[in-house]
Amino acid sequence: MSPGKSRKSDAAKASEEDHLLVTGGAGFLGVNLADRLAGEGHRVLTLDNFSRLHVEENWEWLRARHGARVELVRGDIRDAPQVEAAVGKAAAVFHLAAQVAVTTSLQDPVEDFEINARGTLNLLEAVRKSGRPIPFLYASTNKVYGRLTADGETARRGERHEPVDPSLEHGADESRPLDFHSPYGCSKGVADQYVRDYARVFGLPTVVFRMSCLYGPRQFGTEDQGWVAHFLISAITGRPITIYGDGYQVRDVLYVEDAVDAYVRAWHNMAAVSGRIFNLGGGPDNSLSLRELLGHIGQLRGDVPEIVHGDWRPGDQPWYISDIRALKHALRWEPRVPVAEGLARLHEWLETRFTPAALPTKREVAL
Is 184 considered catalytic here? Predict the structure, then answer.
């Protein structure tokens, strides 16, 4: 079977009693993934502690679309017995639940570790103890590479920073050395390596996606995480945007529909990707700087939001673009939604939900 086919392999088939477990299933990526899986006819169990605003809205949207095909466990991945029960009849585990912000990890490194590292280990142990080869797909981060480029290793060209090293023409690939920078990078990196090692040592079918910046509908971004949506929300509501650093820092961005497709293809083809780590992002063709995003917003809205400048934040990368060639080759996958189209879709969706009078405070906005 070709990796591009939507039909599941025998290893990925679920019985009528089994469910697909999506941790963080009421969050941004989780709810979009659960929607895709339920739409394909699978029973989906979402495990989420509902710690962020708007996940209730996401869950109600999912339930309205799929009814009894989706189930909810209000739980926490730090609760090992609860995790073990959820994994009990799982045909696959899509592990997306996490503490997702560098800034939050700096405020409470211990809680960050308990959620990201210990929580992931709880899930891996539940799968190992089940005695079944349950596919385990993990959402890691590009922050495991640290700052990536040192001072003097990037040069400003136009509205963006770019690396001087020509070997980075296609982006940073998976062979880059790990260089955790920030408690968040450490906790996600620890989990990243545990997931890989459980494939090598215990033979579990696992795959790691080191994700770049995702964006799309059902994302309620803040300046700490989900910056594309945060910029658009600020523009819609008339609030100023704080740019930390010089604004020329570059990221590749990936529309959530394309990210979901990568997870589903990997699950359908675990034999081909088990034990592997992939960078998952938009790649060089879907990259932009903060200043370039402001230009897109100006085109969408006819004006540019007020800008406030702040100092660089710890662990911030002047440049990061994912080299996604390995994933393209393994799964015949590629991003299909270009940046301009994806931004227009997200802008349209956010306009139905945010007005200046209705915007929650910064602390209340969900990631």
Answer: yes
